[in-house]
Write a structure and sequence with these properties.
Elements: H1 3-8, E1 11-17, H2 26-35, E2 39-46, H3 52-60, E3 67-72, H4 78-92, E4 97-101, H5 110-121, E5 127-131, E6 139-141, H6 144-161, E7 172-176, H7 179-184, H8 195-206, H9 211-217, E8 218-222, E9 225-227, H10 236-253
Parallel strand pairs: 1-2, 1-4, 2-3, 5-8, 6-9
Antiparallel strand pairs: 4-7, 5-7
Length: 254
């Protein structure tokens, strides 16, 4: 990427990928790039054993260096994939806003504009998180078991963090680039899957444990659409493993 490409990257979206050959909607990503001049995509291939890397390379064709690929030789987990993408973006692209998005597009890319509007209209907001809330007039489709386990998990997390947050685990998030973000992503995460909670804990640590201030800079955006896509790497049993990680996060940061 040349300097002109870097200046255009106001927003950098990290997309972690592991064996996504069959689920990657190439056309949606292409259309998104074509219609958003200020956005760059960074795909992180986390040691995929299928043809994900080849699919990503094909996706790069004709996008004028608007897409980058970070490749891991072995699988390191979603947490470190996201962190590697953030590190790459901070080092090479110098964006104003960094986010990460699930490769299966359970949250459509149209939500990026909605998140950006929140950040643009309120300079105090540092983070916009997607929230999967099933409301009339919105299309939020989740498996019942995951939904109810998720509600239990969110309640536990809210109590531990002392923060009334509805949905920590939605894979659609945007962050304003500042010292707090750099600190949050500077070190490897303890957890491979509930690193979203760990990010919040690191921000809380950055703000010296001031939950009131942290609550004022996080905006949970009720998604217009979220659809559970077949082939997810997360299974109901993983929620129970996640509770162990929550205890580790509490001991380390809180």
């Amino acid at each position: 990427m040349d300097a002109s490409d870097q200046r255009r990257a106001r927003v950098c979206l990290i997309v972690p990928c592991y064996n996504e050959e069959r689920r990657l909607d190439r056309e949606s990503f292409r259309q998104f790039i074509a219609s958003h001049d200020g956005v760059m995509l960074v795909f992180v291939d986390d040691g995929s054993r299928d043809h994900t890397r080849q699919v990503l390379e094909q996706l790069c064709d004709g996008t004028q260096n608007r897409i980058a690929i970070v490749a891991h030789e072995r699988n390191r987990g979603k947490a470190e994939s996201v962190r590697a993408g953030v590190e790459y973006a901070l080092r090479s692209l110098n964006p104003e806003i960094i986010g990460y998005w699930d490769a299966d597009l359970a949250t459509p890319l149209t939500a990026v504009d909605e998140f950006l509007k929140v950040l643009d209209e309120n300079s105090r907001i540092l983070m916009v998180f997607g929230a999967r809330i099933k409301l009339l007039g919105r299309r939020v489709e989740r498996h019942a078991a995951r939904h109810y386990l998720g509600r239990v998990f969110a309640t536990v997390v809210s109590n531990i963090l002392r923060l009334d947050i509805y949905d920590t685990q939605c894979g659609a998030k945007l962050f304003r680039v500042n010292d707090a973000l750099r600190a949050a992503f500077a070190q490897p995460f303890l957890s491979k899957w509930v690193f979203d909670v760990e990010i919040i804990a690191r921000y809380l640590q950055f703000f010296n444990g001031d939950t009131r201030t942290l609550a004022e800079v996080i905006y949970e955006y009720p998604l217009q659409e979220w659809v559970d896509v077949a082939g997810s790497k997360v299974h109901p049993a993983d929620f129970f493993k996640a509770f162990v990680d929550i205890v580790r996060i509490k001991r380390r940061y809180l």
